Amino acid sequence: MLRTQVLVAATDGSAPPIGLTRHPDGGGQVIGAWSPDGRRLLVYRLGDRTFQAGIANPATGDVRWLQGTPESAMWGRAAQWRDGEQLVLIQRAAGDLPAMMRLSYDAGTRMQHLWGLTREGREPGRTVIGAGAFRDATPRPRSSSLVLVTTTSGEQRTLATGRFHDLEVSPGGRFVAAARFTDDRPFDPSVPFLQGDFSTRRELTLVDLDTGAVWEPLPGLDLSPNLMTWSPSGRRLLVWVRQDGQSWSEGRLVEIDPQRKTVAWTSLHGRRPALVQTGLRTEVICADWLGDRPMLYVQGEARRDWVRLGPFDARVLTRDLASPSSSLLAVSRSHIAVQSGGEVWSVDQVGHALRLSQGRRVASGVTTALFSQGQRFQFNSPTRQDWVLVGEGNGIQRRRLIDGAPLGEPLAGERIVAIDESQAAVVQTDGVREILSRADGARLARINDHLSGVVFASPEAVGHTAKDGSPLVSWLFRPAASGLQRPPLIIIPYPGGPARAPSPTEADIATNVQLMVAAGYAVLIPSLPRVEHRGEPAEDMAADILRAVDAAALTGAFDPDRLVLWGHSFGAYSAVAAATQSSRFSAVIAANGPYDLLSVWGQFALPQSLAPEDGLPVRSRAGWVETGQGGLGAPPWTDPARYIRNSPVLSANRITVPVLLITADRDYVPPAQAQELFSALYRQQKDVVLVTYRGEGHVLSSPANIRDMYDTVWRWLDEVLARASPAAGVGPEPAQAPAR
After folding, report:
1. Is 332 helix (H, G, I), strand (E, B) or coil?
2. Which of 338, 337, 315, 314 is closest to 325 using CA atoms?
3. Which residues contact residue 447 at a Cβ distance below 8 angstroms, ignoring those fewer than 6 apart?
4. Phi, psi dihedral angles at 31 (to 5 degrees)
5. What are the beta bridge partners of residue 53?
């Protein structure tokens, strides 16, 4: 973000794009949201430990910077326009940056401060946390404020205080609903932790923006994350809540009328909500409005559907669709747009379905997810409009929901910025060059022309089968021809689903395919869905990887006797696990991975241990092992043998090839994991190098460190592969995994 800039381009193409003034101390800016009348733009700027929101006049480039520190929109919204003149936002205490921004320096600052206290000997240098009867020993974060800003005058009026993290303004602008963290939520110790589950209860606050009246309609009830949606009239709010001790499936759908001060429990007519899991295994309820009635995504005996909840029954809307998705693409007063398989359908209030076209996935950028529309919008709160974006050949088309009629001509491009039904701007990508054009082809802006000479390697599909015979596709990249010798192969494992070929523009820092190919290596991304290994993540890892390798070897694109495993995070775990099961590999590079599931289950990372007020990491670490990618299903004391056989560090005696370990001292995967594996290999006098980057997190961010990592890897591989004999890496079939 420190290097970003906001450019403003007129849609009529009358002038070249202009940049808003950069932060005076060298920081950068990102886009927030446009005012409803299009006259003002919310922007953010990040400087040296400062973060501000501002109101920009795009016509002049002038910006009125607001006092205070805004919240980020990680969980939903942190700011929303009420109308063309007023803005509601969550304001943190002065100088209190959002946790994600403080990570870049806060751990080092706090550590030096505490070390200084200890060195001086006058005050204790310590942090204290507690649990059970001593939970109050854990520091609490400072409260934030819900603020109404009048943009013309810059006046800021505080509406409410609390630990707010998400808000939604009602249509018409009369009310704002805001979610806030309150007290620690009790839990059943016999139930496995979900990795992304909140440890703190979330409660609801409603504010009348006309009168300033504050109402807390559901005291003591836990608000489901990622659901907070107003009816089209703005008169009722739809949420899902549960009592302490209940699961989300035992909760209730609630309609709240803030004007009448009424709370109504919506009858589901015997239907069960579908629990949709996020990437962090958090359970989400999906619901919305269709006209004046709520809709709910429900779980049936054999399928999931959207139903419209009436006063006397529940009408199934998506009965004619094979596999309706949980996330809606758009909602109008009379229709929804929903994806089923690879197609987009329009469905009306009685369930009549109209096929619109093939689906087109439109992903939000990183800055949008952090500063405009966060996680809630991945599951709920779809766009309120009577048209939807669909795929049309190689381009994009806008189609009306009511009858499927196209709006304008198909647009050629990868991404679309839709202004309204009559105007649109399209982003086209050529390698890493990007062009922003009007729908008629007139160019508005272009970036990265200086990289036009870069040639990118293209993926080649490799078909093979899983252990059960089901078909899989992995992806092979070939380097440019370089003599008669076939190149070594770098394998990038990452279990969990079918492999996806990265596009050339993906800025993957940890395992960048294009840099590997440019260095003269062939690269394989194996498809490793491994559903049958849920709960035994290490089992048969090498065998599954080598099935893809052997299929790719038939192309003759690489030397099958020089195989390098290179994994990051869970991919690093997979690489090390595979190296304990087979000697066919020539080298292993493992970055920022967990290798001992017994210890990583409860270890704290440095930033979290120094800032416990941001939330204890117990749930996220234990949840990753119990129900996340580890998937072991329970804490260590219930099944220690399962933890042992799925911890590669405890099978380090079976590793027969050189290992390069990369870690960082601010990583949320504690660097002690790499230190354990290094120690195990050192103890056996095996070939291993451990590189620790200081001040870095899970993915490197310093340009110097990124360059150094790749330079280190290339030099290390040159040495390792040069030492190998012509038959290097050839060995017996994969060793049997430890018996269950």
Report:
1. coil
2. 338
3. 433, 434
4. -80, 135
5. 44
Please tell me whether residue 638 adopts helix, strand or coil conformation: helix
600 and 537 Cβ atoms separated by less than 8 Å: no
The pLDDT tens digits of the residues spanning 178-212 come to 999 998 888 888 888 888 888 899 999 999 999 99
Q: How far apart are CA 644 and CA 673, in angstroms?
A: 15
Residue with tokens 């495993």: 565
Each residue of 270-289: pLDDT tens digit? 999 999 987 777 889 999 99
Task: State residue 361's pLDDT score.
Answer: 56
Q: Are strands 659-664 and 688-693 parallel, antiparallel or unpaired?
A: parallel
Q: Each residue of 224-246: pLDDT tens digit?
A: 989 999 999 999 999 999 999 89
- Write the pLDDT tens digit of every residue in 378-397: 999 999 999 988 887 767 78
Q: In a 3-state reduction of DSSP, which class is residue 609?
A: helix
User: Mean pLDDT throughout 651-665?
Assistant: 97
**What are the residues facing 343 on neighbouring strands?**
340, 358
Residue 534's φ and ψ, nearest 5 degrees, are: -60, 125
Nearest CA-CA partner of 75 in 615, 603, 568: 615
DSSP state of 548: H
**285, 337, 628 from 299: Cα distances, Å:** 11, 19, 22
Q: Indicate the SS3 state at residue 248.
A: helix
What pLDDT sits at residue 508?
A: 87
Report the alpha-carbon distance of residue 457 to residue 487 in Å, rounded: 15
Half-sphere exposure (CA, 13 Å, Cβ side) for 408? 22
Helices in 480-605 by DSSP H: which ranges? 513-518, 541-553, 570-579, 597-600
Q: What is the spatial distance between Cα 494 and Cα 184, in angstroms, rounded to a whole number?
A: 35
Q: Count how many Cα atoms sit within 13 Å of the Cα of residue 196 in the half-sphere of its side chain.
A: 16
CA 288 to mean position of chain CA atoms: 23
Q: What is the mean pLDDT of the chain?
A: 89
Q: What is the DSSP string of 20-85?
A: PPPPTTS-EEEEEEE-TTSS-EEEEEE-SS-EEEEEEETTTTEEEEPSSEEPP-SSS-SEEESSSS
The rounded distance, in Å, linking the Cα atoms of 282 and 639 is 23
**CB distance 162 to 144 below 8 Å:** yes
Instruction: Please tell me the distance from the alpha carbon of residue 145 to that of residue 92, in angstroms, as a whole number.
Output: 6
* Cα 75 from Cα 607, distance rounded (Å): 20
Q: What is the pLDDT of residues 666-717, one digit of tens each?
A: 999 999 999 999 999 999 999 999 999 999 999 999 999 999 999 999 999 9
- Cα end-to-end span (Å), the chain: 48
What phi-psi label fits residue 65: left (phi over 0), alpha (psi between -120 and 50 degrees) or beta? beta
Residue 410's nearest CA partner among 434, 435, 441 is 441
Crossing angle (nearest 10°) for helices 541-553 and 570-579: 90
Give the highest mean pLDDT range of 33-42, 582-591, 617-626: 582-591
Gap between the Cα atoms of 210 and 191, Å rounded: 45
In angstroms, the CA 40 to CA 57 distance is 5
Strand partners, 474: 462
- As a whole number of angstroms, the longest Cα–Cα distance in the chain is 81
| Residue of 114, 111, 12, 24 whose CA lies nearest to 63 | 24
pLDDT, tens digit, 9 for 90 and up, residues 530-546: 888 889 999 999 999 99
Task: Please report the pLDDT score of residue 593 as a whole number.
Answer: 97
pLDDT (tens digit per residue) in 52-94:
999 998 888 888 999 899 999 989 999 999 999 999 999 998 8
Answer whether 335's CB lies under 8 Å from 348's CB.
Answer: yes
